[in-house]
Amino acid sequence: MKKITDERLVLQNLKNIRIAYIIQTIGILGILGYDLVTKGLDGMRENPLWFVFMITTVISAYLSMNISADQESNKTNPQKSLTISLVVLILISTVVGFFVSITDGFTIVNGGIFGGILFICGLIPIIYIYNLRIKRQDENIEE
Asked: What is the pLDDT of residues 79-105, one digit of tens each?
């Protein structure tokens, strides 16, 4: 297959892919919604489409982070942003862990585990965006 070099055709191809992605997402949500109504929340999460939908959503979010890091102003200090993000993440994880631990049926161990999982899940995108900012900063210095 020949590579497309005309920018108008490349843009039209990207628009077509976006439309196909939107239709696919609506279809997946429709099937998951049907499972939710007929089988309940656990039945919906047992459907393999749930896994596909979650993976697609996470990948889309990471790709959007890459674009948003390129859109930011060059005045943003990556270390300062990392520090602020980590402090906010620690506060949120601690508060959520505390509230889980005081909820009926849960112990302090459950709160610690839940807060730890939340911290790790939040740490991954924070480090990813930090690395994108550092990479962009290095590229701007070389220019």
From this structure: 888 999 999 999 999 999 999 999 888
Provide the residue ranges of all domains of the chain, joining segments of one domain with +.
1-71, 72-143
Q: What is the rounded CA–CA span in Å between residue 100 and residue 130?
A: 30
Q: What is the mean pLDDT of residues 111-135?
A: 91
Nearest CA among 55, 81, 59 for reference residue 133:
81
Average pLDDT, the chain: 87
Burial 65-77 (b: 16+ CB within 10 A, else e): eeeebeeeeeeee
Give me the torsion for CA of 65, 82, 113, 61, rounded to 10°: 0
